[in-house]
Amino acid sequence: MSGGAVTARRASEAGGAVAAGRVPSRERRSPDLPNRRLAWAELLRLPALFTVPGDALAGAAATAATPNHRTLLAIGSSLCLYEAGMALNDWADREEDAAERPHRPLPSGRIHPTAALSTAGALTGAGLALAARAGRPALAVAAPLAATVWAYDLALKHTPAGPVAMAAARGLDLLLGAAATTGRPCEALGSAALLGTHTLAVTAVSRQETRGGSPVAPLAALAATGLLTRLVTRRTPRPPAGRREAAARNRLASGAGPWSRPEDGPAPQPAAAALRLALAAAYAATAARPYFHATLNPSPPLTQRAVTGGIRATIPLQAALTARSGADATALLIAALAPLGRKFARTVSVT
């Protein structure tokens, strides 16, 4: 048989294999791999991850402490527990999403429900293990945080306690940073309450994002945004002298770096106040406008934009809380996460 005939025969056989669905494994898997990665990115809502590190950093700042390696462990634990909640959320809502969001990874068949549930369990275990490495105080906060995440997704989400549970989870996440860094989570209760209030408002709005509804929730969220903006512009009281001296000794032992506190250095107070005001304004601008639009017209598209705006506003709020505690350099680091989150949100939705 001539070479041309062999080539034609192979092309004919390849065409028949394609028509019959018998595509060689290499050719079949290569185009599916990006789709699988995108499906997991959608399931885990990866752009929302940028809203997580600021919790632990704001918690550490509230204790007037310099972030250390235990703070990094707390951030890792927070990231794992947050993503565990995302995977578990879609597993629990797979039947509802089949009717309202058939494009989601589970109802569309791109990810098997068992894989999502297994991922949630594995990430929960990893989050608790990282918290244990950070010390007993951190684990004592991470354990109820994990329990709150699972309780919300499996039982509380569609009950009146749902928004409260979500707010408690975000507040506990901030306390996790304080507990890991210093072992004193109680000193961060004020910041945790403010962050939890914001989360409560966003979650209340999100309950009607697929169907629309009453303007009451976005209006309440708009009012909460105004109150929080006012509160975060105020400087928190300086820590007791003994705690300031301990913090100074810690900084001297580790070397002054980008985490040094402006209250202990030469930075002028007007600059610190200007930073708090700028971060508070960024928070208000990110959240208030979509809330206002959803109040005027609580349709599903505008309500979804309000939820997205509320989630994005978490980062400038964390930064404002951190600046409110006096850690201006840390606040700027947190604020720098916002444009990264917006960039990746163009590809994968945060809701």
Description:
The protein has 351 residues and is mainly alpha-helical. It has one domain (43-237, 267-345): Tetracycline Repressor, domain 2, CATH 1.10.357. 74% of the residues lie in helices and 0% in strands. The protein contains 15 helices and no strands. The protein has helices at residues 3-19, 25-44, 53-62, 69-92, 94-100, 113-134, 136-156, 162-182, 189-206, 216-232, 241-254, 269-296, 300-324, 328-335, 337-345. Helix 9 packs antiparallel against helix 10 and helix 9 runs antiparallel to helix 13 (300-324). The protein is globular. Its main location: membrane. It is a multi-pass membrane protein. This is UbiA family prenyltransferase.
Feature tags:
351 residues, mainly alpha, Tetracycline Repressor, domain 2
CATH class designation: Mainly Alpha
Based on Cα principal axes, name the global outline: globular
Structural class per helix/strand content? Answer: mainly alpha
Proper CATH architecture = Orthogonal Bundle
Biggest beta-sheet profile: none
**Rg for CA atoms:** 24 Å
Which percent bin holds the helix content? over 70%
- Topology-level CATH name: Tetracycline Repressor, domain 2
Overall pLDDT metric: 85
Distance between the termini: 60 Å
